[in-house]
Structure formats: C-alpha cells, structure tokens
User: Which sequence fits this backbone?
C-alpha cells in the first residue's frame, strides 16, 4: 500500500474508532468533573461493533482438469502434471488443475515438482464438498505389541528393511494425534561450563535420584533435554557412571555421560550469555520414564517402541501409526501455484534420533545455520504461490516453509493446530538482502494457529525475516511455546540509504489476536521485531504495528507483549492492547544496536511502561499510554474493547 494511502486509511480508521468509543463511553456514563470514572450504569448499551470484512484471494482458473481419488498414485499424477507444465511458453501458457476427491491420500515419499516456466500454472484443490487428507502415516498392527512383564507399558518390535535398518522417526501417532514422549520430572542444573571444557568434559552431573532410574545395561535412546531462555538442547545419553560424583551445595551429583560429538558441539555453540547453571533439565525417551497413560519411547537403532495405553483400554483397539516422511509436498522454482481445501498431517523430524538437537533462536538448529528445511509444504524460490483454506493438523515439524527468493506469496484462511515447529516460515536467517535471498509482497491473513512449537520450543508461530511489502493481518494465535509473530532478522544497523536495500520495509502487522504466548521459552513476545532498513537519519515510519490484541496468563517476568529488539527502526506502533504481560512494551535501549526512529502511541495495557523505552536522541517517542487494571480496562477505555473485537480471524467473529 502506498504510504500516503496508508495515512488516510489510518486516519479514517481512527475517526471511526473514536466514534464508536464515544458511543460506548457515553453509554457507560460520562467522566465525573474530577476526572474519575463513575459507577457504570445498571443497563449499559449493548456492544454493537462494526462487522469485520475478510480479505479474499483471487479466483482459480482451472484449465486442464485431472481428477484423482485416494487410490491413485499421487507422485505419478504430479509427474504427469509436471510434464504438461514443462511445455508452457509465452505463446502457449498451460494451466493444470488436480482435483482431489474425499479420502486419505497416503504418501510413502515426498511429492516433488519443479516446473520452472512462468507461463505454467498448477492448482491442487479439493473437489466441491470434499475434504481430502494428505498423510505420510503408516499403520502399526496393534497385535504386534506385547505386554512388558511387571510394567504398564507394551513393546513393539519393528523388523529391519533390506538394508538392515529400522524406521527412523520422532513422532508416534495414536488415533491420529501425536503422542507424548516419555520424560522425567524436571530438575535444576548446577553445572557451569564453558567451551574450553569441551576437550575434557564427559557429560554433566545430574541428581542421583534421576540417575538411579536408568538401567545401567540398557540406555535405549535416552536423551537429555535442557533449556536456556530462547535455546534448548537435546543430546543423546551414552551411560551413567554412579561412581563418578561431584558435590554441589552439599549434595552429591552423578555423572551422566553424553554422546561426545554432540556434547562438544553443544558446548562450543551455545550462546555464552546462556550459562547452564540453574537451568531446568530432564531425561526423555526411555521406557523407564513412561509414567503416564499415552506416553511412548522409541529407539530407532534397535527398532523397539514402547507405549502405555490408557487404563482399561485394550491396546488392540488403538490405531497406531508413524511417519518417516519429513516433507509432504515440495515445490522448487515454481510459479503460479494454488493449493486449496486440503488437510495435511503425518510428518516427522529425523534430526533428534539421528544427531540430537542444538537449537538457535527462531527455530534454528545451530549446526545448520538456520531452520531445518522440512515442512508439510516446502517451497523454494516460489513466485505467486497461494495456500488457502487448508488445514495443517498434527505436523511433526513445520507447517508451511518458503525459502530463498519468495515473491507474491499468500497464506490465507488456513488452520494450523498441534504443529511441532513453526506454523509459517518465510525467509532465511540471514543479514544480507540479495535477489536470491529475499521475500517481497507477502500476505498472511485470516489464519488460525493453536498449540505451536512445543516439541521444538524456539520455533516462532509466524516467522518472516528479510521482507519488503508484507501484511500480517487478522490472524488468531493461541498457545505458543515461544513468540507469536517474528518480523525481521539481523541485529546490525542499516548502512545503506532508504530503498537501496531492505531488511524490514513496508510491513503491516495488524488486527492479530495472540493469547498464551511464551509458555516455555524466554526473551520473546507476542510480536517480536528485529532489524532496520534505512540509515539512522531517515526518520519516516514506513512499518506499522497496530490494532493487535495480546493476552497472557501467569506471565514470566521476561515475557513481553510488543518487543522491538536490536536495530528495530522506522516503526509506527499504535492502538495496541496488552493484558497479562509483565512488560507490555520493550524498545531496545541497552548497549549495542539500539532501536531507533520508533513512534509508540495509544497502548492500552494493565502494566507500566518503562521510561527507558523513550529516547529523544534516538528518536524513540512513547506517548499517550493508557493504563488500567484488567477488569477495568473496557470501562475506562472502551476503545480498547473495539481493538480486541477487531482482532483475530474474521470467521471467529461471524
């Protein structure tokens, strides 16, 4: 949107907001002469806000239609479509539409296609009234489980393939839902080591009561989990040495020996700010740690799977399945793709069983330099890609991932539920804008996201890095392990002039509803901003964060609603609501790459705003903050109620 059009749009919206606010305010009684709030009237005027209007994608042009059923070979169908699309030219454009009937389409390998012609169009759509399901799940015969003597769990033994290997997967699906992996209680680490210890360190010392639970002669695929603010580490256990002890505060701790390669990588890569002492840790993925109904453990090196059914439920009546597929649909160098009305489920991530996991900020794996390149739908170098009205349910890694050059991409009207990593990822963890590594003209609106990132808790629900021209509008995000929306990447100041290059430019984040965020990790927020796109002297605010509603419960002291971190610049932040966060606003003011050229106004919050956030020298202006207790917010500031109502998915409000 042209910034001048945006200016008039904002002004019209503000006038309407004030109009409705005055109606509500007067309905609840005018302010007393002394400025205090009077007692609300006994029969206040009902809240009657304007109707939300959903944005819509363009119509689909069908061209040649290929109808498929669940019994068809989807890889073969896609290859047929690809052969047709490869013939597209300027004088002979080709449109192919794959129409999918009802049913469950089981994949035993990733469906991949690359049709590079910009005159080719591929549509993959559900037949009218149909709800096709794309799944990577393979069934496990429950009759193969046998009761383990003296235990409440059962054992299933996989057979080896022709190469002598057992299936590698992280996720067990029970009746279509990902089950809970076994884990111990959480303990507090007393360790304090640095990268210089890597050559001599064998592992870490753990509480002896935890160590005593493990059988010395069979570690299976036991793993240590430890978290530190925005990072976490999952490392394979080699053994327990009960004779190797260390005293911490008068208590003996026992040596837990770890995979030496993973341990040294961990100690050499973890952020030096994040020391290991006083961090929570637990053991996971061992049968002796199965303490609750529905928990499992799996050892891919021996093919042993353990599961504990609910009390009284016969294991023969449970539907077990697993997936060795990390990506369902993969598109490379594609133009003009529409995916509509499909449901995706049944993916996994092989990183942990094969190599452990050393996380980095925003869903990164530190040894990979960014996120793992796996997702239910994976697109590399995509142009004019539309994913609309789809469902992503019980995904063992990422929902949708766009990589490298991405232009004119839209994700609209989709549901993302129970996603192990990020729901939506667009862009790279990089600092340098280039033609091969950028995102332009991005639309993410009217999506519903719930329970995101709990298995990989540095994952952001919606992540978009280097970007020019983007709208993230009317999304509902509920229950995230980490940040709700992350925009931008790179901590350094822009050294180029405005519009010579980009980091975050012409981005609008608005009308989003974000609840129960930052439930596991620290140092993030409902909305997290990072990076600049203009030299320090350029003062215009060409990015906009407005009319968002953030709500949290039992907030950790380090949780923040609206977080403009290092080098954030040129943002107009206005008309947002924050309830339940112990810090509703943070604008980076500490030594380093300060945030600058920020205007914050009309923030409705139930917690104070630190005066350090404002700094005239850096042109950071914070003004007109509206503070009220949660139960008094809408009485004192009825316009905040309108912001809440206008936030979130359009369909939620109809």
Assistant:
């Amino acid at each position: 949107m042209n910034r001048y059009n945006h200016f008039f749009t904002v002004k019209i919206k503000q006038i309407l907001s004030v109009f409705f606010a005055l109606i509500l305010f007067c309905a609840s009684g005018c302010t007393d002469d002394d400025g205090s709030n009077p007692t609300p009237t006994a029969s206040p005027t009902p809240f009657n806000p304007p109707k939300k209007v959903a944005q819509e994608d363009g119509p689909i042009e069908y061209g040649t239609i290929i109808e498929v059923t669940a019994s068809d070979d989807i890889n073969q169908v896609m290859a047929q479509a690809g052969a047709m699309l490869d013939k597209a030219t300027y004088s002979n454009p080709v449109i192919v539409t794959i129409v999918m009937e009802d049913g469950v389409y089981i994949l035993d390998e990733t469906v991949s296609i690359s049709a590079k012609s910009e005159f080719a169009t591929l549509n993959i759509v559900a037949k009218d009234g149909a709800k096709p399901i794309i799944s990577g799940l393979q069934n496990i015969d429950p009759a193969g489980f046998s009761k383990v003597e003296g235990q409440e769990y059962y054992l299933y033994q996989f057979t080896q393939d022709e190469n002598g290997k057992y299936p590698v997967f992280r996720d067990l699906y029970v009746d279509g839902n990902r089950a809970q992996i076994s884990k111990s209680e959480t303990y507090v680490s007393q360790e304090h080591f640095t990268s210089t210890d890597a050559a001599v360190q064998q592992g870490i010392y753990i509480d002896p009561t935890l160590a005593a639970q493990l059988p010395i002669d069979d570690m299976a695929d036991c793993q240590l989990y430890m978290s530190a603010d925005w990072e976490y580490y999952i490392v394979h256990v080699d053994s327990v040495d009960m004779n190797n002890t260390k005293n911490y505060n008068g208590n003996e701790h026992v040596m837990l020996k770890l995979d030496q390669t993973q341990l040294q990588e961990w100690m050499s890569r973890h952020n030096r700010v994040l020391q290991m002492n006083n961090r929570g840790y637990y053991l996971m993925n061992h049968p002796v740690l199965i303490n609750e109904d529905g928990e499992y453990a799996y050892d891919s090196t021996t093919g042993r799977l353990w599961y504990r059914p609910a009390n009284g439920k016969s294991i023969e009546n449970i539907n077990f399945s697993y997936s060795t597929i990390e990506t369902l649909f993969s598109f490379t160098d594609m133009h003009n793709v529409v995916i509509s009305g499909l449901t995706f489920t049944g993916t996994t991530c092989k990183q942990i069983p094969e190599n452990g996991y050393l996380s980095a900020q925003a869903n990164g794996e530190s040894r990979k330099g960014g996120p793992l390149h796996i997702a239910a739908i994976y697109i590399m170098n995509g142009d004019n890609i539309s994913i609309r009205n789809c469902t992503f349910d019980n995904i063992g890694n990422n929902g949708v991932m766009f990589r490298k050059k991405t232009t004119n991409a839209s994700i609209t009207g989709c549901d993302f539920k129970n996603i192990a990593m990020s729901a939506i990822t667009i862009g790279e963890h990089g600092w340098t804008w280039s033609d091969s590594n950028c995102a332009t003209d991005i639309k993410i609106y009217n999506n519903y996201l719930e329970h995101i990132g709990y298995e990989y808790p540095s994952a952001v629900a919606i992540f978009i890095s280097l970007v020019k021209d983007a709208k993230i509008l009317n999304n509902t995000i509920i229950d995230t392990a980490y940040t709700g929306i992350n925009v931008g990447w790179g901590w350094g100041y822009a050294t180029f002039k405005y519009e010579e290059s980009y980091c975050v430019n012409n981005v609008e984040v608005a009308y989003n509803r974000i609840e129960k965020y930052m439930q596991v990790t620290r140092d993030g927020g409902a909305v997290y901003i990072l990076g600049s796109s203009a030299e320090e002297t350029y003062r215009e605010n060409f990015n906009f964060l407005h009319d968002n509603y953030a709500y949290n419960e039992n907030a950790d002291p380090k949780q923040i609603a609206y977080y403009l971190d290092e080098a954030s610049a040129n943002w107009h932040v206005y008309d947002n609501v924050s309830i339940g966060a112990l810090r509703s606003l943070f604008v980076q003011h500490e030594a380093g790459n300060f945030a600058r050229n920020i205007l914050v106004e009309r923030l409705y919050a139930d917690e104070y705003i630190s005066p350090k956030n404002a700094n005239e020298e850096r042109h950071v202006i914070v003004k007109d903050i509206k503070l009220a207790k949660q139960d008094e917010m809408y009485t004192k500031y009825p316009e905040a109620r309108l912001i809440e109502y206008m936030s979130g998915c359009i369909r939620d409000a109809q």
Q: What stands out?
A: Residues 3-27 form the longest helix (25 residues). The CA atoms of residues 170 and 384 lie 33 Å apart. The chain has a mean pLDDT of 89. The chain is about 10% helix and 35% strand.
